[in-house]
Amino acid sequence: MQTKNPTIRHFENAADYRKRFIIQEQIDKYLPGGKHFIDDSEIESQLSSAAARCANDPVRIREILAKSRAIETLLPEETAALIHVTDPALFDEMESTALAVKKSVYDNRIVMFAPLYISNPCVNRCVYCGFRCDNSDQKRRVLTMDEVRQEIDVLAGKIGHKRLIAVYGEHPETSTDYFAETIRTIYERQVKSPRGTTVGIRRVNVNAAPLPVEDLRVLKQVGIGTFQVFQETYHRQTYVKLHPAGTVKGNYDWRATCFHRAMEAGVDDVGMGVLFGLYDWKFELMASLCHARDLERQFGIGPHTISFPRLEPASGTDVPTTSPYLIDDATMRRILVITRLSVPYTGMIVTCRERPESRDAFVHCGITQMDASSNIAIKGYSDFASETHQEKDRQQFVLSDNRTLEEVIAHLAREGIITSFCTAGYRCGRTGGCIMDALKTGKEGKFCKINAVLTFREWLDDFAGAATRALCEPVLNRELDAIKASLPMFYPTVKEHYDRICRGERDLFF
Ligand code: SAM
Ligand code: SF4
Known about the structure:
510 residues, 11 strands, eight-stranded parallel barrel, two-stranded antiparallel ribbon, TIM Barrel, 23 helices, alpha/beta, binds S-adenosylmethionine, binds iron/sulfur cluster
C-alpha cells in the first residue's frame, strides 16, 4: 500500500482527475502578459519570409553555419533559412557541419538507454496512441514493485543497461506517489551480471504527463534524471483535433508550460519532442525551437535533450498510416541536421521506433543518444524469452529496430563510435545550466569521454561476447590514447580507475 504524500493532490477516479487536475495559475504564471511563446502567425511569417528570400544563398548559409560551429544558438530567421535550403551541395555542407558540431560538443560517443514501460491505463484519448482509454484491444497493466524488480533484473542484470526512461500512462491509479515508489524501487535493485559483478540502474529519466510543481518536487526528491514530455504537435488546431476536448491532454497550455514548472521545481534537465507525422515538420521544428528559447529566456537553461519520435503503427488506430504529414527518411535527416545546427549543445535522441537502416544513417546527423534491446510491452522484458519480442495489444506502438544492445554496440564500434553508459553528470550535480555551460565550453566533453571509456569497459567485461569484445577493444584503446594525449596530467588517475574496473570494481566515475 502506497503512503500518500500530503504535499500533492490525490483523486478518487478518472472523472474526478480530469475535472480537477489542471491548475490554471501554474499555466498563466509562465505566459507573462498573456503572451504565448508559441506564436503560430509569427512562425508562419518567419517561414514565409525565409522562403521569399534567396533560399540557397551560399554566403548567407555559410555565415549561419559559422555560428553553429562556434556553438551559438541560432535565431529563428536563421533556422528558417536552413529549412528552405534545397540545393543538395549546400545541404551536404550543412550535414557535415552538423556532424562537426556534434563531434566538438559530444565527441564520437552515443549514450545508451532503454525504455521501461511501467503502466498503460490512461484517461486520455490521443487518436494516434494504442494506450488511449477507448481502445478496448489494449491489455491494461500497472506493474507491482515486484514486477518492476523483475524488469530490472533483465535490463540491468542480463542486458547491461544503466540508464532508463520510465514511461507511464496518465491515470489517477498511477499517481506521483506511484511514480516515486517505482523510481525508488528501480534505484534500489542491485543484481549480479553474468560475470558476477553487482550492477543496477544508475539514472532513471521519466516520460510522463505534465505535472503540477508540487508533484515535480516529489520526483526531484527521488532523484529523477530528465523529465521528458513531448508536445506532440505545437500547431494548436491540429492539437485540438488529435487530443479531444474534455481530456486532460486536450489542454495545450498545461502541456506547453510543463517544463517551466519542472524548472521551478528544480528539475532542470528537461526533454522536449514533437511526434513527427502529425503536422507540417517545418512549423514543428520552428515551434520547438521557440519553446527551447523561451526556457532559456525565463530560466537561463535550454532543453537537456530533444527527441525525434515519428508516428509508428499502433493498436486500434489508422492515424499513424494515414496522416497526410508523415515524413520520409530524407526529411528526418533534414530535421536532425537543422536541429543540431540550431541548438548545438542539446542532446538529441532517436529511438527504436525507427528502422535499423534509418538509425544507422541518423547517427551521422548529430544524434547523441539511442536505445537498444528495447521492449515496450508492459512487463515485456521479464515475460518474453526474447527481449525484443513484440505484442501490439500490449504496447503503445510497434518498434522497428529490434536489434539487441550487443548488435547495436558492435555496429557503432565498426563506425568508430564508442557507446557510453555514463550517468555521472547528474550524480555529480552537473545538470541544467551547469551542464549547458560545461558543454558550450567543451569542459563536460572531457568528463564524458573519461566516463564513456570507464562505463564501456564495464559493459564489455560484464556482458559482451568474445567477438564483440575483440571488435570493441581497439575503439576503447584509441579513446584511452586520446585521453592520454589531451589530458596528460589527469591520465594516471583515469588509468588507475580503468585498471580497477578491469579487476572487477564497478561504478567509478569523474
Ligand atoms: N502518457 C504520457 C503522455 O502522453 O505525455 C506519457 C508519454 S506516452 C506513454 C509516450 C509518447 O509516445 C507520447 O508522448 C507520444 O509522443 C508517443 N506516441 C504515442 N503514440 C505513438 C505512436 N503511434 N507512434 C510513435 N510514438 C507515439
Ligand atoms: Fe495516454 Fe500518453 Fe497515449 Fe495520450 S499518448 S493516450 S496521454 S499514453
